[in-house]
Amino acid sequence: MARAATTSDAFNAVAEPRRREILEYLAQGERPVGELVARLGMEQPSVSKHLKVLHKVGLVRVRRHGRQMLYQANPDGIRPLYEWTQTFERLWAHQLLRVKERAEHKAREHN
Amino acid sequence: MARAATTSDAFNAVAEPRRREILEYLAQGERPVGELVARLGMEQPSVSKHLKVLHKVGLVRVRRHGRQMLYQANPDGIRPLYEWTQTFERLWAHQLLRVKERAEHKAREHN
DNA sequence: TTAATATATTCCCATATAGGAATATGTCAA
DNA sequence: TTGACATATTCCTATATGGGAATATATTAA
Known about the structure:
Two copies of one chain form a homodimer.
Chain A: H1 10-13, H2 17-26, E1 31-32, H3 33-40, H4 44-56, E2 60-65, E3 68-73, H5 79-85, H6 89-109
Antiparallel strand pairs in A: 1-3, 2-3
Chain A binds a DNA duplex through α3 and α4.
């Protein structure tokens, strides 16, 4: 088997750095393709292809406005990623705790 | 150009569902490869290969214990993902607000 | 209509997969 | 040493990719 398609889910879609840039930019609100091209310094066909992937996995919504296509981020699509990373929140807490304990230990040492 | 290597960063490494499963399992603590094989129902070479990718991007740590290799999740490696998703937190807040407003509106209607 | 603008699609290709099968390496026990 | 156990590596192959270049489609304006 080969690698799963970029369009198979949000995790795969977002693995591409350019697509993350696009999503970050679209977090500001609805924007036409041309603005992404201008601001992110990518080729127009490249932007369109990335948007197609993002759309397929539900990470962006589109709407036509005259000749322009207005894209916006669909934050709901990001939630699965957010929630998955939270699996490890507990472990971060432990680390912070350890740091805190070490700091307190040091503080006692110096008294 | 082709797709970026799975070993290029945490985003790419974690795009593979099997690797996420492995990380989730290792969130419990340090575990030998054999236990992953048994519990996750994957082939041993497959698990070893996935672990290699995870190790290369710093998502797991290893330690030898006799014949066994004990792997543990390195939660720090996940933080970049967590932090990136937080870019969109603000947008979720808006949505919750909208839900709340709708609920309150309905409540007023029924008075 | 025709031209101009905005975006999407197609074609080409070097590249890195993930899994299966087989085998290699490393470590302990007898 | 030899064998058994635990894990890693290699070889194979179908497959999807991302970028570049060229072109197609859709919409508005003249």
